[in-house]
Structures
1.
Amino acid sequence: QVQLVESGGGLAQPGGSLRLSCAASGFTFSNYAMRWYRWPPGKEREWVARIDSTGSSTSYGEAVKGRFTVSRDNVKNTIYLQMNSLKSDDTAAYYCNVWTDKDYYGQGTQVIVSS
């Protein structure tokens, strides 16, 4: 079955960086676009980034554009989210997502941006 496992979250200072990873299994990874979402505390889910199946096309939510970069390794079946110039508003649980026969999410990884 589809499994997504996020890692790399933690505490960062404003202006700092973190790199999230999402290891995927249970489906043909290289055939599917992947997405990152986040749930800030007390707020609604927010789409963060999308990467197509080959990694040649990416898109970003307005709040993270120019600061975050999504990438993938189709050999390691893993996607990444490089987060730079972090702000307190980036504090959230981050989830990777794939739609195959339905939507799948991992367990999430918590990012806290605070001084």
2.
Amino acid sequence: VQLVESGGGLVQPGGSLRLSCAASGFTFSSYAMSWFRQAPGKEREFVATISWGSFVTYYADSVKGRFTISRDNAKNTVYLQMDSLKPEDTAVYYCHARRNANEYWGQGTQVTVSS
């Protein structure tokens, strides 16, 4: 099983980034997919989730209206479009897959928002 995040980097406040997470080794289309993040010195926190068929999405209050989660089951990939980025969005962003008792994590990608 692999979850490989990409798309992180350094961006100025107010800018945008799109993260991608490519999945392999499991039935991607059957899993709910989520993004979490962990800032330095803080616990990992939930960012957004999307159901297996994209019917349901849910966001943390801190990113609602600025971030959009989506998925392409044909490409085994989940995305996180991040707009109007703020310095407090700086963190390592992790991809997460869950179906019943099975769950997997990616290694993370760094996002830094700074002028």
3.
Amino acid sequence: QVQLVESGGGLVQAGGSLTLACAGSGRAISNYAMAWFRQAPGKEREFVAAISSTTSITYYRDSVKGRFTISRDNAKNTVYLQMNSLKPEDTAVYYCNAHRYYWGQGTQVTVSS
């Protein structure tokens, strides 16, 4: 069993930056592919970024490429999402996912125009 807790969300103006963190407990997340998803009001949850377990290869949805960076610190059992040049359309609840199975409770990101 893996527990995931997101943090770092908040309110930011367009063009600003935020860094989200996802802290794992219960098991080491080093063996898991990790991902960030987001869900805006009235919309389905969508993939944002992922990082593989052993090689740390990264993947991004097109709309965040060049602006977001996913990274992991296995020693801290934590995954990060650095978000730069934020846009109002990035407003959503951001969720951390491990192994395509475990979910965190989400953290709200609001970008004002």
